Amino acid sequence: RTPDEKAFDEWLRALNHGVGQEPTPFPLECQGPYRAVSSAQSWIRSLERDRPFFLWLSFAEPHNPYQVPEPYFSMFPPEDLPPTATDKSALEKKSFKWQWTRRLGEHAYPNYDDLIPRARANYFGMLRLLDDQVRRFVDFLRDEQILDNTLVIFMSDHGDFVGEYGLMRKGPEMPEVLMRVPLQITGPGIAAADQARQDHVSLTDIMPTLCEAIGAEIPRGVQGRSLWPMLTGEEYPHDEFASVYAEQGFGGLHYTEDDPLSLEHCMMPGPISPTFDELNTYSQSGTMRMLRKGDWKLVMDMQGRGQFFNLAVDPYEVNDLYDSAEHAEVRCAMLADLLAWTIRSQDPLPYPVGRYIYKRDQRNYYAPYA
Fold it and tell me: Which residues of 256-281 are buried (b: 16+ CB within 10 A; e: fewer)?
């Protein structure tokens, strides 16, 4: 690292996952995305010409600590941003884990509410900074004359509250703002689409898709599905992607307000001031399973307690319809689908041996082809 990069890294560590109230006092070249792209460019240049390669180019941003240098700091003034769709009053209809996450933020930052507008502005700035660095990398691939033979996948691991529900970061349960992430794919053989696809897919599908793209068999034990026929305009069973499944929690029982709780247990030390750990003992307790199908979303926990939302009219999952008699039929259908996904997602390894021959679709599909 250069002296400036070392100094920036120390400054970032001192910010300790907080919110930068002033422009970051280091140039763009010190930012993680810029350095990552530079390293990727150097690595590709070091390869033998025309040698096939796989590159995982990972950016921490957009992520806490919420910080950006100019010109990004001033691009999205807090007063010019659209308001959030929810605020902390929505927590009254959410579970203890959500309310605990808010309480923890207030414990770490007594001015928590005042930090949110600048955190949102910085988050928008980080997105733009990231866009510019992705463009810089793609332009490099074009200049090196390898873009036309390169498959580029743009994805993310999770979302951020960024002020919704009066929260920052992540933590409780599986709301759409945390679970639904960008996925864009372009390259040779990919059929361009004029709008976002409505199929429900998962990050677990990326690896099997790459296997088919390069002509490799999907390895045993992989549970994702190949998206290759969907991407290339070929026929595929649409029912296979009618829903998507997710899991959350480290197990055991849920912690509740009735338990002896410790705010300090959820704090992390820092060189200047401590911060809070949103992925803590209380927010991650228990086990939950989620099914998203069309505009419907079902969440069940290990004690048989459910949540049910119509995202078409309630995209922020404030009004729980699980006990609604009017929605009993669709809820029961979703429960059956969730059970099927739960069975399907069990670890298939080891495969049976001897006279037993394990049958699977070459793309890991379970729905029949039309």
Answer: eeeeebeeeebbeeeeeeebbbbebe
Distance CA 274, CA 268 (A): 5
DSSP 15: H
- Dihedral angle at the C-alpha atoms of 3, 133, 62, 208, nearest 10 degrees? -120
Instruction: Report the C-alpha gap between 213 and 124 in whole angstroms.
Output: 34
DSSP-derived letter for residue 239 is G
pLDDT-based confidence at 369, cuts 50/70/90?
confident
Residue pair 55/40 in contact (Cβ under 8 Å)? The answer is yes
Helix (H, G, I), strand (E, B) or coil at 229: helix
81 Cβ contact partners less than 8 Å away, ≥ 6 residues apart: 117, 120, 121, 124
pTM of the model: 0.94
Cβ neighbours for 272, distance < 8 A, ≥ 6 positions apart: 14, 16
Runs of H (alpha helix) within the chain: 3-15, 32-46, 72-75, 96-108, 112-143, 176-179, 206-213, 228-232, 328-344
Beta-carbon count within 10 A of 209 CB:
22
pLDDT in tens, 228-244: 999 999 999 999 999 99
Strands 275-276 and 267-268, sheet pairing: antiparallel
As a dihedral over the C-alpha atoms of residue 271, residue 274, residue 275, residue 276, rounded to 10 degrees, the angle is 130
What is the mean pLDDT of the segment spanning 66-92?
A: 97
Mean predicted lDDT score pLDDT of the chain: 96
Query: Alpha-carbon distance 306 to 302, whole Å?
Result: 10
Q: Is 98 exposed, middle or buried (0-12, 13-18, 19+ CB in 10 A)?
A: buried
Taking only the tens place, the pLDDT of each residue in 198-225 is 999 999 999 999 999 999 999 999 999 9
- CA-to-CA distance for 299 and 179, rounded, in angstroms? 13
Give 264's contacts (C-beta < 8 A, 6+ positions apart): none
